[in-house]
Design goal:
Its cofactor is NAD(+). This is UDP-glucuronic acid decarboxylase family protein. GO terms for molecular function: UDP-glucuronate decarboxylase activity. Pfam families: Epimerase. There is one protein chain. The chain is an alpha/beta fold and 325 residues long. The protein has a domain of 200 residues: NAD(P)-binding Rossmann-like Domain (Rossmann fold). It contains ten helices and 13 strands. The strands form four sheets. It has a seven-stranded parallel beta sheet, with helices on both faces. Strands 7-10 form a two-stranded parallel sheet. Helix 6 packs across helix 10. It is globular and about 55 Å long. It starts with a strand and ends with a helix.
């Protein structure tokens, strides 16, 4: 049994990873400040005998609290707002958790001689001029705009990882995560899949920003979590940056139309002004993940969307019944 720390444990990816590791009989220490994570995401895990939850802001000096954790084998540093809606609402906190928070977790990894995985983002590529994006591409990021608090903070977090690996030999791996989805996304998250599915099951207009020709690649959460675990386990991933995402690319308007069809809704599709610095294209080159990890996604978009729609609809119907009662 490994002792594993997960920051951002009450968030979307963190709660899925917590569940998976507990199923695999590991001891999990979940850390979250609950700024965007929801404690309800962990309602079953909170009573699990191998789970500890610490309400903690890792951006602060928490060295004394972390020392009390005891032995640690692995650290998954997932803490950070990830939706533009949330990170633009708290830009300073977003920068802090990805810089000071990352350094604090690297210090913990150094002190405990633990392996660490840092979840960076495809946003590190900005509005890319190279397509699809390989890990070697240095990106096209605007440092003076509303997305910079997330994009540049994640990039600086990667630099912290580089320095701790080179200077102190910390066994750190960096995953650049592309769009990930499933029913676990908050329905007020503001990201495209959660927006479209929530609107579709309520019979509301599906809001497309821009003309819908911008592209994204969507990875179902099970594939993502499997990739992160394979990175953690692989010595070949130590000291490396690896894209984790689905290389199949879709126009946003295609996704809206597919969700309309799968949800069997009469919702209209409406078009709105594109947000500042919204990338026009986004698609990972995953050759490195294939070569080093033997990983690639296996769940097709239609299957993942059906699972997501079914779960959102069940929750929506349950909420409606509760309100009626």
């Amino acid at each position: 049994m490994k002792r594993i720390v997960i920051t951002g444990a009450a968030g979307f990816l963190g709660s899925h990873l917590t569940r998976r590791l507990l199923e695999q009989n590991h001891h999990v220490i979940g850390i979250d400040v609950l700024s965007t994570g929801l404690i309800s995401n962990l309602h079953q895990e909170l009573t699990h005998p191998n789970f500890e939850f610490l309400l903690m802001d890792i951006s602060n000096d928490v060295s004394e609290e972390l020392e009390k954790i005891g032995h640690v084998d692995e650290i998954y540093h997932l803490a950070s707002p990830a939706s533009p809606k949330f990170y633009q609402n708290d830009p300073i906190g977003t920068m802090r958790v990805n810089t000071l928070g990352t350094q604090n977790m690297l210090e913990l990894a150094k002190a405990k001689k633990a392996k660490m995985l840092y979840t960076s983002t495809s946003e590190a590529y900005g509005d890319p001029e190279v397509h699809p994006q390989p890990e070697e591409y240095r990106g096209n990021v605007n440092t003076w705009g509303p997305r910079a608090c997330y994009d540049e903070a994640k990039r600086l977090g990667e630099v912290y990882c580089y320095e701790y690996h080179k200077r102190y030999g910390v066994e750190v791996k960096v995953a650049r995560i592309f769009n990930t989805y499933s029913a676990g996304l908050r329905n007020d998250d503001g990201r495209v899949i959660s927006n479209f599915v929530s609107q579709a099951i309520r019979g509301e207009d599906l809001t497309v920003y821009g003309d819908g020709t911008q592209t994204r690649s969507f990875c179902y959460v099970d594939d993502n979590i499997r990739g992160l675990q394979m990175m953690m386990e692989s010595d070949l991933a130590t000291g490396e940056i690896i894209n984790i995402g689905n290389p199949k690319e879709y126009q946003i308007i295609e996704v809206a139309q597919l969700i309309k069809k799968l949800a069997n809704t009469d919702s209209n599709i409406t078009f709105h002004q594109l947000p500042v610095d919204d990338p026009k294209v986004r698609r990972p080159n995953i050759e490195k993940a294939k070569r080093l990890l033997n990983w690639e996604p296996i769940i097709e978009l239609e299957e993942g969307l059906l699972r997501t729609i079914d779960a959102y609809r069940a929750k929506h119907e349950a909420d409606m019944k509760q309100n009626v009662v």
